Amino acid sequence: MFLTCDIGNSRIKAGLFSGNKLSETFSFENVEQLQEVFRNKQISGTGISSVVPESSHQLINFLENRSQLYHRISKDSRFNLKINYKTPSTLGTDRICSAEGALLLNGVMNDDEIILTIDLGTATTINIVKSPPEFIGGVIAPGVTMMGKALHSYTAQLPLAGFTDFESIIGNSTRSSIASGLINSALGMIDRIIVYIKKTFHPAKISIFMTGGNAEKLFPYIDFEFVYEKDLVLYGIKAIASLNLP
Q1: What does pLDDT average to over the chain?
Q2: Which of 73, 100, 122, 81 is nearest to 244 (CA)?
Q3: Looking at residue 51, which CATH number applies to its domain?
Q4: Is the pLDDT of residue 40 over 90?
Q5: Contact at 8 Å (CB) between 84 and 138?
Q6: Whole-angstrom Cα distance, residue 172 to residue 165?
Q7: In terms of CB atoms within 10 Å, which end of the chain has fewer, N or C?
Q8: Does the pLDDT at position 209 exceed 80?
């Protein structure tokens, strides 16, 4: 089995792969919990994406003490995608991993195909891959929940509102108006990117992959076809690590 680890600021997400099939997922508060679960499991290799250096070093020490192969993803990793980005040193590995995960699940890209990955989490990110597989950039914006909290925190009279306050496109109360603004801000941005891609690249096909904690909450308001994969980043970690390990 192959282990993938996505180390975030608040949680560690992990997945076990058999080949390219994700067979089991886990969520941990810290590296110690992960070590307890995998101490006696047979692992053929580990892929690591991390935004917490201390936690990644702790995990790497654990793997090295067990003489296990691992690869920590960085800007110097080999990728299945060509990275066409002006500031690769600031490109978040989560964005690359979501794009790589979409490429893995999508299969061979057609010459006139575009892949979009949309991660609706703390931030909303849209990443664009064109053929031949090339990461060309995207969009980073505040997530829906973050926008709601910002409105509430930086104004004197606006209440905290969210998805459950949505009533219609046009809100008829302050809470429903805020909810409409939050949802339409996210979906309007996505629609605008799709329109831009169609006008600029004229693709025969746009394959859209969605992930992130807020994704399912937006499903009722989406009118385009997409594939939802909550563990898209883990698939990307598997694809990149496999390319970099012996």
Answers
A1: 94
A2: 73
A3: 3.30.420.40
A4: no
A5: no
A6: 11
A7: C
A8: yes
Residue ending a domain, among 45, 72, 99, is 72
Confidence of residue 200 (pLDDT cuts 50, 70, 90): very high
DSSP conformational letter for 238: H
Check: pTM over 0.90? Answer yes or no: yes
Q: What's the alpha-carbon Rg for the chain, to the nearest Å?
A: 19
Residue type, 159: P
What pLDDT does 67 receive? 85
For residue 200, what are the domain limits?
A: 82-235
Does 142 map to a domain? yes
Nearest-angstrom CA–CA distance, 91 and 76: 12
> Could you give the angle at the alpha carbon of 110 between the alpha carbons of 96 and 49, nearest 5°?
15
Give the N- to C-terminal CA distance of the chain in Å, as an integer: 15
Say which residue the tokens 């891609």 belong to: 197
Cα distance between residue 3 and residue 63, in whole Å: 11
Query: What are the beta bridge partners of residue 116?
Result: 128, 208
Match 């909290």 to its residue by tokens.
Answer: 149
Is residue 79 classed exposed, middle or buried when 0-12, 13-18 and 19+ CB atoms within 10 A define those classes? Answer: buried
Residues 33 and 111 in one domain: no
Rounded Cα distance between 207 and 186, Å, is 19
Asked if residue 176 and residue 98 are part of one domain, the reply reads yes
Could you tell me if 148 and 191 lie in one domain? Answer: yes
Beta strands 21-28 and 12-18, pairing class: antiparallel
Q: How many residues does the chain have?
A: 246
pLDDT higher than 90, residue 10: no
Out of 20, 47, 72, pick the residue that ends a domain: 72
